[in-house]
Amino acid sequence: MENLLILGAGGHGKVVAEAAMLTGRWDDIAFLDNDTTLNRVIGIPVIGSFDTYLDHSKAYSSAVVAIGNNENRFVWLTKLEQAGFKIPVIIHPSSIVSKFSQIESGTVVLAGAVINADASIAKGCILNTSSTIDHDCVIGNGVHVSPGANVSGTVTINDFSWLGVGASIVNNITIGSHVIVAAGAVVISDIPDSVMVAGVPAQIKQSYGDEL
Ligand SMILES: CC(C)(COP(=O)(O)OP(=O)(O)OC[C@H]1O[C@@H](n2cnc3c(N)ncnc32)[C@H](O)[C@@H]1OP(=O)(O)O)[C@@H](O)C(=O)NCCC(=O)NCCS
């Protein structure tokens, strides 16, 4: 048994922590958060701010990041990895994950999510509550698939993209990096990098250029 540090004690942090508890893999779980008023969250102690992470590396051998922002999550994940923390995959016991799928470190798979055969999920992703990733999908680093979003077979989603709640992606689509797919959108054609798409069918509403 090992101890787990979770960076981020906000709403997403709570959900990740509960999933981690339910796995029974860790003796002790603690949060780090920059809100110094927090003492305990869902019964789990908040033992310092983010930048104290090195002070806890002896007591907590494993760490994950529970920050919603895709880029920030990945920055912190990289720092933890470089500091020698083990970065686990956290899989809620009520999710369904194919034994023929691959999931890299720091990704969290939350309650009711389904990942089907030959799907490949990179580092630091959030596969949120009741989201689905079908067969042969390739999901890049730091992607967030929000609650209830459905990704059909053989879809590629590149790094740091975010699918809003209830979004749907039809099969054989490629979505670029740093894309935002608005809540409820239905994507039926390929999407370039760094745009926001919305609607049914999804259309480009904003382009971020070099901002991201
Ligand atoms: C996509 C999103 C981030 C855009 O937010 P924003 O940058 O503040 O954008 P705006 O509200 O200014 O909207 C820009 C345009 O897109 C449209 N739009 C935004 N979200 C839309 C949606 N979900 N469906 C349809 N159109 C949408 C707006 O109507 C507006 O259109 P217009 O320019 O023709 O008037 C936000 O609307 C959204 O869907 N967030 C998802 C939240 C979510 O899933 N959270 C889960 C957390 S776990």
Q: How far is the N terminus from the C terminus?
A: 40 Å
Q: What is the averaged pLDDT score? A: 97
CATH homologous group name of the largest domain: Hexapeptide repeat proteins
Q: Identify the bound ligands.
A: coenzyme A
The computed structural class is alpha/beta
What's the main sheet like? 8 strands, mixed
- Give the strand content: 25-35%
Query: What is the count of structural domains?
Result: 2
Low-confidence stretches: none
Query: Which class of the largest domain in CATH terms?
Result: Mainly Beta
What is the count of DSSP helices, taking H or I runs of 4+ residues? 2
Organism: Paenibacillus tritici
Keywords: Repeat, Transferase
Protein name: Acetyltransferase
InterPro entries: AcTrfase_PglD-like, Hexapep_transf_CS, PglD_N, Trans_hexapeptide_repeat, Trimer_LpxA-like_sf
Would you mind describing this structure in some detail?
Residues 3-79 form the PglD N-terminal domain. This is Acetyltransferase. Keywords: Repeat, Transferase. The chain is an alpha/beta fold and 212 residues long. The chain folds into 2 domains: 2-88, Rossmann fold (3-Layer(aba) Sandwich), CATH 3.40.50.20; 91-201, Hexapeptide repeat proteins (UDP N-Acetylglucosamine Acyltransferase, domain 1, 3 Solenoid), CATH 2.160.10. Helix content is 12%, strand content 30%. The strands form 5 sheets. Strands 6-9-12-15-18-21-23-24 form an 8-stranded mixed beta sheet, covered by helices on one side. The protein has a 6-stranded parallel beta sheet with strand order 7-10-13-16-19-22, with no helix packed on it. A 5-stranded parallel beta sheet has the order 8-11-14-17-20, with no helix packed on it. It binds coenzyme A (COA). Coenzyme A (COA) binds at residues 128, 146-147, 164-165, 180, 182-184, 196, 198-199, 205.
